[in-house]
Amino acid sequence: MNTDHLLEIQNFSLSFDNKVVIDQINFELKKGEILGIVGESGSGKSLTSLAIMGLLPKNAKTSGKIPFRLDDRIIDLAQESNESIRGNEIGMIFQEPMTSLNPSMRCGQQVIENILQHKKQDLKLAKSKVLSLFEKVKLPDVERIYKAYPHELSGGQKQRVMIAMALASEPKLLIADEPTTALDVTVQRSILELLKELQQDLGMSIIFISHDLGVIAEICDRVVVMYQGKIVEQGPVQQIFNHPEQSYTQGLIACRP
Ligand code: ADP
Ligand code: MG
């Protein structure tokens, strides 16, 4: 594994009942980069991220390797089901924050529980950590948000709470699966800016998944284009966006609104 790679996906395949849904894919994530995965619905993007997170359904059959660099050793995420490694080193945010937030628990409390799950610490210290995380993700009036229930927040604010939660363990890798798809365009843009800033400030690597190549082009360094479980092409995002080699990618660009 190349020393400047944080993660590699090597000959990874996944099937359900002999139906292949990911077919021999290969890509790498460099330290500190934002890598995009783009493709229409059903192309295998979410399953790829769930494989990295170790959250695949039990009936998924996989082959291949997912080496991940953890300080001075390399672990194969395709083999090991070490939850603490994933929970601490890899954070994930999803399209719909409501499905991941508990509607009957105050936002601050949810992030606190998440922090305490990863690391035993003083409650007061944990609370101040939550407030500083809320500031880091640029939530307004953090004391109010701390006490608010999820339904009292806007969609963009809920997504920021989710990002704060994912950052609580200071992960090396953040996987964002369609994090802006459910948001309107201006909110979408501010979340993209936030992710980019976080990547620059914290030096973490991000895998950013979207069906929209335009969104990918705004924040990613490189992009992997997937179609029906295969990688169609990959490369620097401007190159793919301006000079796509494959007709599938050309179609993705042409059908943008
Ligand atoms: P994407 O995120 O790109 O929209 P997914 O990774 O969610 O695509 O799904 C890829 C393919 O795998 C789809 O055809 C989907 O129907 C299929 N699939 C996903 N989850 C399951 C499952 N639990 N059982 C069977 N097929 C599944
Ligand atoms: Mg998906």
TrEMBL record:
It comes from the Bacteria. Residues 7-253 form the ABC transporter domain. Coiled coil: none annotated. Belongs to the ABC transporter superfamily. This is ABC transporter ATP-binding protein. The chain holds residues 1 to 257 of 559 of the full protein.
